[in-house]
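Chapter review: from sequence to fold.
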Amino acid sequence: MSTDKFEKNIKKILLVEPPRTMTGSVLRKTRPTVQPPIGIAYIAAVLENNNYEVKLLDCIVEDVNCAVGIDIGNDIFRFGITDDQIEKFIIDFAPDVIGVSCIVSLKYEDAKNICRIAKKVNPEIITIMGGAHPTLNAESVIADANLDYIVLGEGDYSCLDLIRYIEGKISIEELDGIVMKSSGAVRIVPKTKFIENLDLIPFPARHLLPIDKYWQINLPHGEATRSPWSTMITSRGCPASCIYCSAQLLWGKKYRGRSAENVLNEIRSLIKDYGIKELLIEDDNFTFDKKRTEKILDGIINEKMDITWTTPSGIAIFTLDANILEKIKKSGCTSMTLAVESGSQRVLKDVIKKPLSLSKAEEIAIAARKAGIKTKAFFMLGIPGETKEEMNMTLDMARKLKVDWACFNVTTPLPGTELYEICKDKHYIDGDMLPGNIEYTTGRINTKEFDADYVNNMFVEANKINFLENPNLMDGGNIDQAIHDFKRVIRMVPNHELAHYALGLAYEKKGMIEDAIKEWRKVLDINSENKKAKECLEKYAETMK
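The token string follows.
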């Protein structure tokens, strides 16, 4: 569709979270999360406040098989309702505009497919795509014949302005962060503005989602130990300059936090309207503004709110100390994820430009454990500029911190980031990073120091730490926590050989021998050559007779 100039009467808008398709090889290492698509829920709230009829379609949660996926052939699995079901939904609602979310590159083909279905139903439906992938790959994405517009970065009000532009109510000069086709060419209206006062944005339109289905499935990003639960974002933007991160490209470099009272009002609303018991705070920098953080924590404590909360996207270590950790615990925090990334101070400072002292990371990990907060940590392997020795230092740091769970990822260069430009300039990657290659469990980078195969092997070795060297399996560890964590892995990846083996060890340590034997037998069902499982079963040969 040419978008040169027209006036269209827009009444109905459909915002879509697409299905997720993935290969079996990726699925055997990880699986999609199932949680409310809060980005399009924010946009929906803004549109509703401006008198548009809006519907949200989360194709994943509407699929009864979304916890396990469906094999659609050629070792490809789909999480989400079928194309026919999506088509019927569009026909029944008959929207004037369909907006498609594409947060991660691995979902791009699925997002593209929504636009194809929309145009099949009615070529006059206007299609819009937003999220990280189209923002960072705008020119290649807009080339799709079924896509009319892209909203770049922060889209809450940019999307509203685009709708008004399509209606002929505002001029192109009033747009910010929009990509379109114009006179046969691509026209990019750059992103120049970010919302300074986040309190002006209405709370996400959760009422447009089947919110109870998320609780029933219970597979959010991170983990929820209580239900009902909800995701929440209290700030945007990041002043750090980490070379691998796309946050600044989406949300800007300046940190912007909602006021403490605005955050507390949303929490009050979630408790009153949905009975929420647990919050998953998805901020990149929840604790960056210490005074704001303390006001939020004090509000939760003083009002005796019956909630617990976690930080699945990580927390800025440099903002923490023993005093604020005490308040964090008192306010109901049960788990925090420390963004450590590397065990080499040189790599942190000179290579990825992360403002973190490893000694501070050690101090906070110890203090969090003393406060009774479950700790996780993020680590990256295969960073261009690090050595094999420094990669091993990262594994050593994971062991040294004794966190409950170490989350290892293979370094992946996202288009638009400084890391991507380095990899391209130095020929560390072959060609461009195609959407299907942007996942965090498989190496794509080859440098003089290491190749992708080496990193893939390191990734396998690193993840063994969680199962064979888990601190909660050791004397003095929390064996119930170990059992909980191993079971959670098995729930996500049912045939995870190491998780079943380690769960057997945990049951053995707890004296639950029959359960341990079941797990080791399961290991042999998965891999009949597993020597360690055989050895464990041999110890209890008499018991099994």
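Two observations follow directly from the output. The domain at 12-189 is CATH 3.40.50.280 (Rossmann fold). The chain has a mean pLDDT of 93.
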